Amino acid sequence: MEPTPDPQLMDKVVNLTKVRGFVFASAEIYGGFRSAYDYGPLGVLLLRNVKDAWWRANVQYRDDVVGLDAAILSPPAIWQASGHLTNFTDPMVDCRNCKERWRADKIEGVCPNCGSSDLTEARAFNLMFKTHAGPIEDEGAVAYLRPETAQGMFTNFANVVRTMRRKPPFGIAQIGKSFRNEITPQNFIFRTREFEQMELEFFVPPADAQRWFEYWLDQRFSWYLDLGIPETHLRKRFHEADELSHYSNQTADIEFLYPWGWGELEGVANRSDFDLLAHAAASGESLDYFDQASGERYVPHVIEPAAGATRAMMAFLLAAYQEDEVGGETRTVLRLDWRLAPYQVAVLPLSKKDELEPTAREVLGLLQPHFMCDYDVTQSIGRRYRRQDEIGTPWCVTVDFDSLEDRAVTVRDRDTTEQVRVPIDRLADEIRSRTGR
Ligand code: GAP
Question: What does pTM read for this prediction?
């Protein structure tokens, strides 16, 4: 049975991310800047861990994918050829009563602000951010902030094939910022105007495209499961023909059960030869592949798993948030996978007394080369455990007065709250074994 989303979950998670330093409203001291967010000390760790986990699965653990980091600022020629200048639009309507603007496909003929149904006809609004490169603001200086990282991988296709001696099937992976002038950014970091993407363009012989599409859809689905999103909160949804992007001939979304219902987490598309053909035609450069073994020349087809790093971070937070009871008290706990948790270990001297500090710092120094560690001496040990539970730290290491005698510390598990005594010289191994490594 499908779980019922908790309507208060979103507020709880947004509040937790704010008070614990994951995400702040951008330009808050100036009253905020709508839909822009700053990632605080814990958010930057969590987001980095999400991106590292993606990179490990899609680049490090494979021998058929290489990385790229292309420019964000890009000339109109790229977006003319890719079709974005013409097609990357959302339908927009104005409310004649209160003058608000809305995405026509997200409202049902009624202004969500004032309830009026006196709306204009929908017109196409291009989502790309336009700017000028250099000191002269004329047509010749127009540049765009990329709305997807994908195009850099198409325009560098021949460079990568040549320099890396690659042969389809192979992929190019990229993580980076993208920008879309969303008409109605909403739901915290779910839809923002500036966000981060993790995209893979996987180039394949045309006859193999369907097989690779299915392969990547399964791979990507499993990635979220492996990092702790329950199966009840994930599903695949295939696009109807009328919702396909202009470049896609088949797309399936991996959807997550957000507190407001099912929504896109990642899209896996079969972009066919659309992009390479378009850039070859517009640039005059050949972007086909010559297979010397078979003597065949062809334009590879592209399977694209396209994920949002910031959106995935939000899904991981929502899936990890729980309230349970410990010692008759309700506690909030983020049951994040250890690979995603901002800190894997917190080192907590039992008291502020000076005698404990050298040993506590020694323990910290032993763990830091292996794990991201927090070090916290303030407040009672019980409150410090709660704080670590709330930010998702899987293991707390407590240094107490006995540690000075027996050279052992207490390791506490976030999920079970169980505590065991471990010799300091076996501590790093003990924690490593708990990670399954
Ligand atoms: N290159 C294909 C592409 O960009 P997309 O479905 O438009 O496809 C891929 O975007 C992913 O990027 C989405 O599934 C989502 O996770 C993320 N994304 C897209 N727009 C976003 C936005 N405005 N804010 C946050 N994440 C966004």
Answer: 0.96
